[in-house]
Structure formats: structure tokens, C-alpha cells
């Protein structure tokens, strides 16, 4: 597989992982104070872990533009993690 295609696929996987983590966080936020909060928090944790792994892999082969975007994804996910820790 050509190097460019690897970069693009890795970036797309990281993008998808980031979106799934953002969606899981939205679900967690809507479940605050409800009985399903624990389940949503566990789901968010799983999605966050997967997203961080995908982002780390993509950073290894990223172009300069992709690198900047991936670093922003990491920063955004870290902000969510910090928010979760504050609310516990």
C-alpha cells in the first residue's frame, strides 16, 4: 500500500475515533443525574482510549496539516477527560 494511502487511512481512523468519543461524551452529558450515567461514562472511557490510540498511530505518519489537526484532537479529548475528572 502506498505511503500516502497509509497516511490518509490512519488520519481517517483517528478522525472517526475522535468523532465517536465526542458523541459518547454528548451521551454522557445528557445522562448526568440519570441511572444510565455509569454506563455512559464507561462507554466514553472506552471510546476515549480507542481514539487516543488511533491518534497516536496517525501522528506517526501524518503530514504537517494532519499533525496539527491530530494534536488539536488530542487537546480536545484531554479537555473532556479533565472535565470528567472534575465532575466525579
What does this structure look like?
The chain has 88 residues and is mainly α. Helix content is 84%, strand content 0%. The protein contains three helices and no strands. It starts with a helix and ends with a helix.
Keywords:
mainly alpha; elongated; Small, acid-soluble spore protein N
Q: What is the helix content?
A: over 70%
End-to-end distance: 45 Å
Mean pLDDT figure? 93
Q: Can you write the helix and strand succession as a string?
A: HHH
Number of strands: 0
The biggest sheet amounts to: none
Which radius of gyration do the C-alpha atoms yield?
A: 14 Å
| Secondary-structure class | mainly alpha
Number of helices: 3
Beta-strand share of residues: under 5%
Shape: elongated
Q: Oligomeric status of the shown chains? A: single chain
Query: In the residues, how many domains can be counted?
Result: 1
- Low-confidence segments, ≥5 residues, pLDDT <50? none
Protein name: Small, acid-soluble spore protein N
Q: What order do the helices and strands come in, and which of them pair?
A:
Layout: H1 3-30, H2 37-59, H3 64-86
Helix pairs in contact: 1-2, 1-3, 2-3
Protein name: Small, acid-soluble spore protein N
Concise structural overview:
The chain has 88 residues and is mostly helical. 84% of the residues lie in helices and 0% in strands.
Amino acid at each position: 500500500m502506498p505511503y500516502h494511502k497509509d497516511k490518509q487511512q490512519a488520519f481517517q481512523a483517528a478522525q472517526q475515533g475522535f468523532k465517536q468519543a465526542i458523541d459518547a461524551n454528548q451521551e454522557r452529558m445528557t445522562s448526568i443525574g440519570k441511572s444510565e450515567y455509569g454506563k455512559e461514562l464507561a462507554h466514553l472511557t472506552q471510546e476515549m482510549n480507542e481514539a487516543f490510540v488511533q491518534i497516536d498511530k496517525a501522528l506517526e505518519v501524518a503530514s504537517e496539516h494532519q499533525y496539527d489537526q491530530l494534536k488539536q484532537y488530542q487537546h480536545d479529548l484531554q479537555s473532556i477527560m479533565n472535565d470528567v475528572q472534575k465532575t466525579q
